[in-house]
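pls ignore typos typing on phone
nicotinamide-adenine-dinucleotide + seq
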Amino acid sequence: MKKTKLQEIVEGHHKVEEEKRLRYDLKPTRIPPLPKGEAALSPTTKAGWQTEGIIRAIISNLHNGKNWEKFFIYGGSGKAMRNWEAYYETIDMLQSLEPNETLFMQSGVPYGKTITHQLAPRCVVTNSVIVPNWTQSFQEMVDAGLTVYGQMTAGSWIFIGLQGIIQGTYETMIAAIKSAENSPNYNKLNSFEQNLIVTAGLGLMGGAQALAIKMAGKIALIAEIDPNNLDRMYNEGRDTGTPYLDIQVDSIGEGVKLAREYALKNQPTSIGVLCNAVNLLEYLIRNKITPHVLTDQTSAHDMLNGYIPDKMTYDEAIELRTSNPKKYKDLAFKTVKNHIELMVELQKKGAETFDYGNNIRTQAFKEGCEDAYNFSGFVPNYVRPLFCEGKGPFRWAALSNNPKDILTTDEYAKKLFHDDPMLINWVELASRYIPFEKGLPARVFWAGYKGRAAFGMLLNKLYADGLLDAPVIIGRDHLDGGSVASPYRETEGMRDGSDAIGDYPVLNLLGNSLSGATWVSYHGGGGVGVGYSLHAGQVCVADGTPLTQERLFRVLTWDPMSAVLRHAAAGYEKSVKFAVKNKIFVPGITEDKKVNYLDLYEELCSLVKERTGINLFSPSSSENIRLL
Ligand code: NAD
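k done
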C-alpha cells in the first residue's frame, strides 16, 4: 500500500532521529577537554568568542562538577545538561550559530534558534520551571525526560567550584564577627571566646566554613559526626599546602584544648571534632565557654536522610535509617529540639547566633521548641544589607584556561577597588589559600552598583590591550539581590511581605537580556528545592570589542540596580538612601526622573583610568556614542 505523505514525513523523522542517536550515543570515555596553551587563544566558532565562551563554560562546569558522565554538577541532582545527545547537539548549534542568532535551551536540551540581533543574548536558558500547582510532580517529570533540576549555576553553566561557596561563607562570617563585636555582650567574653567560632557540619557546602572562618582570622571549632566527611575536608587541598580543615580530633576536650592554645597564640586555624553537634554544645555550656559566633550547617533540612540523631555513631545512624526510619526520625527530631535549645542558651549567654540556611529552626519548632525563632537567618542578618546596596557575588573565569590571566585580573581588581579593604583582603587571601579547580581558572568577590560595571568594562579592555591571553567570562550566582525569590532563604522576612513574589527575578532576567548579556538563564528550585524558589542569571563574554563594552555597561549597571530597586520597593531605607546618593530613579520615592547614562558612563571611564591607568573605549570618540 502506498504510504501517505504524513507517514513518509514521520518515517523520515525517525530515520534522522536514529542517525542522530547513533552519532550522539557515543558517550565519551573521558571528560570533554578544555583547550589549553595556544589552542585556547582563539575561538573556533562561527560567531567568535561570544559562542566559544558558552561552549567552554559548559565544559568547565563538567570539570568542576561531581559527576560529568551524568552531568551532575553540585547541590544534589543539579545538572548542566539533559544527556549526551543534547550535549553534542548544543555544542554543534553553538559552533555554527550566526552572530545575530539566539539559541534557546529548555531544561538541558536545545529547543530552537531564531534570528535576533548582534546585541541580543546568544543563548537563553531555562531549567526546572514548573507551573506552581504541579511542582509536587517534578520528580515524575524528570523521570519522564521532560525536565532537569538546574540548581543555580549547574544548568546556567557558571559553577566555579568551592570558591563560590567559600567566598559567600567568608562574607557572612565577617559580617557576623562585626555584628558580634558591636554587641555589648562582646566585652563580657574572655579573649579565647572572642576568637572562637563554633558550628557543625563539614559536608560539601558546610566544609567551606572551616577555611572561611580561618580566612576571617578566627578559630573554627566544628562538630562533624561522619568520619569520612571529616577526613575528606582534612585532606582537601592538603597537597597544595592549603587544606580546608587544619586539624581533626576525635575528642571534644582535645578540640577545645587546641582551640584555646591557638587562640592564645593568636593563630587562626580550623579544628574538626568527630562528635554530634549537641555534644559539643553541651560540653561548652558545662565548661562555661561561650563562642562569640555560633551557627550550624548540618543537613537539618532533611530529618531522615541528612540530620544525625545523637547517642549513636555515624554507622549506627545509617543502619537505623534503613532498618527503622520512623524511630530514626523520632530520634532526629528530639535531637534537633535539644540542639536549638542549646544554641538559644548560648545565644542568651552572649553568642552571636544565626541560622545558616538549613531550616534547623523550623525542624525544632515542629518538635515543640517554642524559642526556635529566637535567632534569625543569615540573609536578613548579614546579607540583606549588602543586597540593599546592590552588592552580591560577582565572578569571572579565564577562557585562556591559564591561571596567569586570573592573577593579572587580581592585580587590577586591587587597583580599582583600592578603597575597599574587605575586597582587597579577600582577593589576597583567595590567591593565597584557594587552589584553582579543574575547570577554567576563576575568581569571585562581592561587588555592586558602579563597581561591577567599571570592573567588567576594565576586564574587557585588558583583553583588548593584550594584557590577558584570552577574554574572560563575567557572571554571578543566582543568589543575588535582584535575581531571586526564595522565601526560606534569600527573601525570608522581607519588610513588605513580598518574600514569595516571583516578578522580581523575571524583571531581572528581562533587563539583562535586553541589555545584551551573552547568555541568560531562568530556573526554579535552586538551593531549596523546586517549588520554593525562582531565580535568574546572566553571563557576558568580555571579548575586548567596543560593542561588548557597551553590553557590559548596560548589563552590569542593570543587574545590581535591580537589587537596589527590589529592596527600595520593599521599603528598605538603606536602598532608598543608596538610590538617592547614586542617582538611581525609584518611582514614587526619588524625585529626579532624568537619569544621565552618558554621565555615568564617563564617570566609570574616568574612575578606571584614574585608578588603573587603563583607557576604556571612549564614549565620545567612537561610534558607541550612538548606542548610548
Ligand atoms: P551535606 O549533607 O553534604 O553535609 C552535612 C553534614 O552534616 C554531613 O557531613 C553530616 O554528617 C553532618 N551532620 C548531620 N547531622 C549532624 C549532627 N547532628 N551533628 C554533627 N554533624 C552532623 O550538606 P551540605 O551540602 O554541606 O549542606 C548543609 C546544610 O546547609 C544543608 O541543610 C543545606 O541545605 C544548607 N545550605 C545552606 C546554604 C546557604 O546558603 N547558607 C548553602 C548550601 C547549603
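The CA atoms of residues 336 and 371 lie 13 Å apart. The radius of gyration is 25 Å. more later
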